[in-house]
Amino acid sequence: MHYSLANGGVNVVTIKDVAQMAEVSTATVSHVINDTRFVSDELRERVLEAMEALSYRPNALAQGLRVGETHTIGLVVPDNANPFFAEISRVVEDLGFENGYSVILCNTGDDLVRERAYIDVLVAKQVDGIIFIAAGDHHEHLTELTSHRVPLVLADRDVGQSAADLVLVNNEQGGYEATRHLLDLGHRRIGCVTGPSEATPSADRVSGYGRALREAGVCRDEDLIEPGDFRYQGGERAAARLLGLQQPPSAMFVCNDLMAIGALRAIRTAGLRVPDDISVVGYDDIPLASAMSPALTTVAQPVEDLATICTELLLSRIEEGVNGAPKRVVLDTKLIVRDSCAPAPVREGS
Ligand code: RIB
């Protein structure tokens, strides 16, 4: 399906242009296009003439999505095998079902090509609206959705798309609190295993890590910051690299729980014990975190609230129209202290 993006320098004639030329409301144009309500012959004629004069061609996106007639919503996530996204999917699906909507779940695998393909699928299916967690850090192909006034709510990752509602978590504060906790236990060589560089939540957590170190007067050592990928194996590999340093850290802040669980395995493989030899803090508080041995200290994300607010925002946009300035909601995290951290061992440079 070919799109001509408004920001690609190609003029996109919108329903608003037709309404202005015909001197009617966009709702009247929509009712003429979709035959969803009586319109007088005079107004109908004016709308059809304007559409002809402007060569306006309503597409499935404009027709299906705006009138909210398919009672389906799209949910796009980077990795539904990750319990964090699985929990979001469950809450959205439950709330959607309670309100008479079914959900089409699209798993992009953090792949931008798949992400684009799934947007085409959702448009073709004429879903009534979309909750979208981006795979990367840009929003070009979301512009098509917003330029056609598609009800769209972005969650978790801020890709700079200012025309859509946005529900985020304060990840900078979360990273700060995780690192502050380790500093308060006396750790000074604190490793950090990051998520994918293009995922804004990871970048914000690392910023919080840096702020905590600065406040404590601890020099940020780039050798202690290892790139990860939000996956178990990536966490294990990154932690193993940190443990292989000449001066290994006495603690690690790992930017999500799946990688932190991988880090626990790397620490065991190195013959070390948590928290006696090294402390670990994760992020997300997935159910597995409390089931680990030792139970993982982590930063809890308000997943239920995040998913609920996204769904409620989207349904109100679908049913009340997409008017009104986009909303931006930022939710707080909470440090959950369990058993994977202990005071820094008394040794030089720890
Ligand atoms: O665990 C997956 C991570 O990706 C979470 O921390 C969430 O914030 C998402 O961005």
Class inferred from helices and paired strands:
alpha/beta
In whole angstroms, the N-to-C terminal distance is 57 Å
CA radius of gyration is 24 Å
Number of helices: 13
Bound molecules: alpha-D-ribofuranose
Biggest sheet: strand arrangement: 2-1-3-4-5-11
The coarse silhouette is elongated
SSE ordering = HHHHEHEHEHEEHEHEHEHEHEHEE
Strand residue content: 15-25%
Mean pLDDT: 89
How many runs of DSSP E, i.e. beta strands?
A: 12
pLDDT < 50 runs, ≥5 residues: 1-10
Estimate the helix proportion, in percent.
Answer: 40-55%
Largest sheet: 6 strands, parallel
Any chance you could write out the topology, listing elements then pairs?
Layout lengths: L14 H8 L3 H9 L6 H14 L5 H7 L5 E6 L5 H16 L3 E6 L4 H13 L4 E4 L10 H5 L4 E4 L9 E5 L1 H14 L5 E5 L5 H16 L9 E3 L4 H12 L7 E4 L2 H13 L9 E6 L2 H5 L5 E4 L2 H18 L7 E4 L2 E3 L14
Parallel strand pairs: 1-2, 1-3, 3-4, 4-5, 5-11, 6-7, 6-8, 8-9, 9-10
Antiparallel strand pairs: 10-12
Helix pairs in contact: 1-2, 1-3, 5-13, 8-9, 10-11
